[in-house]
Write a structure and sequence with these properties.
The protein contains 21 helices and 33 strands. It is an alpha/beta fold. The relative contact order is 0.10. The protein is elongated, with a radius of gyration of 29 Å. The chain starts with 5 loop residues before the first strand and ends with a helix. The protein is about 35% helix and about 20% strand. It folds into three domains: about 210 residues, Enolpyruvate transferase domain (UDP-n-acetylglucosamine1-carboxyvinyl-transferase, Chain); about 210 residues, UDP-n-acetylglucosamine1-carboxyvinyl-transferase, Chain, CATH 3.65.10; about 220 residues, Rossmann fold, CATH 3.40.50.300. The longest helix is centred in the C-terminal third of the chain and has 17 residues. The strands form nine sheets. It has a five-stranded parallel beta sheet. A four-stranded mixed beta sheet has the order 3-16-18-17. Helix 5 runs parallel beside helix 6 and helix 15 runs parallel beside helix 17. The model has no long low-confidence stretch (mean pLDDT about 95).
Length: about 675
């Protein structure tokens, strides 16, 4: 997962391949709570691992449920409708509406001493209509802040079941879902009726709730969308085993991706098909209206570009409230305006999504009109696209929607602020996106950091790569690994074995994982970081055939979203067109002192004088070699870090990089 401050998406060109979606957030949290309310054990497969589900699992543990996690399988030992203890409990619900609303209702019916809090945005999300309905039922709930909003304090109820329970349906379907999941706990001796006041929005999410309630033994009788009856004698029964469908809302980004960018082989989406119980699967119908070509089978979809440009549409989006956000970005690629209606619920989600989508589309250069419950987005001609830094409002769907803007016709980058917010439903979203998208190689940014031995370029480069979310290439490690592999094969590091070593280098199975370096299945991190390994690297680096063999290997590291490469000729030979080149220097005395401390900490005995002499000799050899001598690129920015901390050096490189961006 990208945990960087921002993530810059270079201009993307095409997409194809297969993506496997994570489990549905809506289904995951419903199933977890229903499993907790049952007697006995329920094994839940393919659960979504996200911020929202972690919030729910933490709450269930606090209540005394048995929770055993094994990858994407969670085993829940339920409460049987009875709380196991009476001590006060305070729950932190983050910004997880799918956990906050139903858990509030269940705890209010069960009764106890509970406090439910969340992040600041959760305390701005309305819950008053649910609380009003629960109070009419006889539940005891207090507001600890502003009336109508969390945080809440829940006490013991005096249940009154003789009248229908009324709840508004035009703010959030989660209120009705919460009541439908909680009230079977109170329906032992009589039927309980819920009446919806006003139009019920987001009906497909109620369908999900009813479908899952049936799986857990509750047969709700529905009279249209206004009256729901929970039969007397209802009791939760565990299905023993249940599988969570992949998230249809998350599928919308890859359906849109196929419609925009799959001008050839399709984008294949695994984990959800047209027969999904989730209402957001109907996003595929809206995408097809805009021009997408979609085929479906059991648990899969394939999408490719059909009409181009896409077709502007006008659509009532009540049936796809979350997925409809993706249409707003697809509208930028259309031939006429797109109007999304009946989306008032966007105002009370993780953020005010109507305002957010309008604001960020305008940053890209689009004309947008908005009202209380609709949004109209005009297409963006090629010459009107603007490079934009997209504010994501701590809203996962805003971040994922606007990643699609990187396919713009103007070939300009898009910055996504706070990319880690996708962890709410799809922690690996950007990794998944990059796995099936392609960009022209010149558009994939490269930052080069060159410099002499022990200048600290490796540490600096890896820190900058981490800050930007870029891949990291330690080119010096490639030469060290080549030398190590040659020695392990029994080769001498000399010109007589040059071609054999070069053949070995062409197929090196090397990869970088954080601070670890792997040669096939062998962790060679320590083996290549000795003084001897450094000297051996210098020996093979002067062999022209070896250098040629490693050039292509180094070029292969230039992958989305970008690359941070350090070495001695990254900016001069390997990536001469890199937009930022840094030449890192430090005095021989300072470098010797750093290396001395490093070796002493590893228990290796040495002296400052000998280290300094070795470094100066290596500098001379590297600077005077005939092939790619060590020297700054003509357009490199020089950074002397003799007196700088690592943090200050990182900040300087990041400042130089930001200054080159168009945002």
């Amino acid at each position: 997962m990208f945990s960087t401050e921002f993530l810059d998406l270079p201009p993307l060109q095409s997409a194809s391949g297969t993506i496997t979606l994570p489990g549905s957030k809506s289904i995951s949290n419903r199933v977890l709570l229903l499993s907790a309310l049952c007697q006995g054990t329920t094994v839940v497969h393919d659960i979504l691992d996200s911020d929202d589900t972690r919030v729910m699992l933490a709450a269930l543990r606090q209540l005394g449920c048995g929770v055993n996690e094994a990858g994407t399988t969670v085993t829940i030992t339920g409460l049987g409708g009875q709380l196991q203890h009476t001590q006060p409990i305070e729950f932190f619900m983050g910004n997880a509406g799918t956990a906050m609303r139903p858990l509030t209702a269940a705890l209010a019916v069960l009764g106890g001493d509970f406090t439910l809090k969340g992040v600041a945005r959760m305390h701005e999300r309305p819950i008053g209509d649910l609380v009003d309905a629960l109070r009419l039922l006889g539940c005891h709930i207090e507001y600890l802040g502003n009336d109508g909003f969390p945080p809440l304090r829940i006490g013991k109820p005096t249940l009154k079941l003789d009248q229908p329970i009324q709840v508004r349906g035009d703010v959030s379907s989660q209120f009705l879902t919460a009541l439908l999941m909680a009230l079977p706990l109170a329906a032992k001796n009589r039927a309980i009726v819920i009446e919806v006041v006003g139009e019920l929005i987001s009906k497909p999410y109620i369908d999900i709730t009813l479908n899952l309630l049936e799986r857990f033994g509750i047969q709700v009788q529905r009279d249209g969308w206004q009256r729901f009856t929970i039969p007397a004698g209802s009791s939760y029964q565990s299905p023993k085993t249940i599988h969570v469908e992949a998230d249809a809302s998350s599928a919308s980004y890859f359906i849109a991706l196929g419609a925009i960018a799959a001008d050839g082989p399709p984008v294949r989406i695994q984990g959800v098909g047209a027969d999904s119980i989730q209402g957001d699967i109907r996003f595929m119908d809206a995408a097809a209206q805009m021009g997408a070509q979609i085929t479906s089978g059991p648990n899969w979809l394939e999408v490719r570009r059909g009409a181009w440009p896409l077709k502007g549409i006008e659509l009532d989006c009540n049936h796809i409230p979350d997925a409809a956000m993706t249409l707003a970005v697809m509208a930028l690629y259309a031939d006429s305006p797109t109007t999304l209606r009946n989306i008032a619920s966007w105002r009370v989600k993780e953020t005010d999504r109507i305002h957010a989508m309008a604001t960020e589309c305008r940053k890209l250069g689009a004309q947008v009109e908005e009202s209380a419950d609709w949004l109209k987005v005009y297409p963006l001609p090629k010459n009107q696209w603007k490079p934009a830094s997209i504010h994501t409002y701590d809203d996962h769907r805003v971040a994922m929607c606007f990643s699609l803007a990187a396919f713009n016709a103007a070939h300009i980058p898009v910055r996504i602020e706070d990319p880690k917010c996708v962890a709410k439903t799809f922690p690996d979203y950007f990794e998944a996106l990059f796995s099936i998208t392609r960009a022209d190689t010149p558009h994939i940014p490269v930052i080069c950091i060159d410099g002499p031995t022990a200048s600290g370029k490796g540490t600096l480069a890896s820190r900058v790569a981490q800050a930007l979310g870029y891949h990291y290439l330690d080119s010096g490690a490639l030469y060290r690994i080549t030398a190590l592999a040659a020695i392990q094969t029994g080769l001498q590091l000399d010109a007589a074995h040059e071609n054999t070593i070069a053949d070995l280098a062409r197929t090196l199975p090397v990869r970088f994982e954080g601070e670890s370096v792997w040669l096939g299945s062998q962790d060679v991190s320590d083996a290549i970081r000795t003084e001897e390994a450094g000297m051996n690297a210098s020996k093979v680096s002067v062999l022209p055939a070896v250098r040629t063999a490693l050039v292509a290997l180094q070029h292969s590291f230039q992958r989305l979203p970008g690359l941070l490469a350090d070495g001695r000729d990254m900016g001069t030979v390997i990536f001469p067109h890199a937009p930022l080149k840094v030449y890192l220097t430090a005095s021989a005395a300072q470098r010797a002192e750093r290396r001395h401390k490093q070796l002493i900490s590893k228990g290796i005995s040495t002296t400052l004088d000998s280290l300094r002499a070795d470094l100066e000799a290596r500098d001379a050899r590297d600077s005077n070699r005939s092939v790619a001598p060590l020297k700054p690129a003509q357009d490199a920015l020089q950074l002397d870090n003799s007196q700088l901390s690592i943090e200050a050096s990182v900040d300087q490189v990041l400042a130089w990089w930001r200054a080159k961006q168009p945002f």
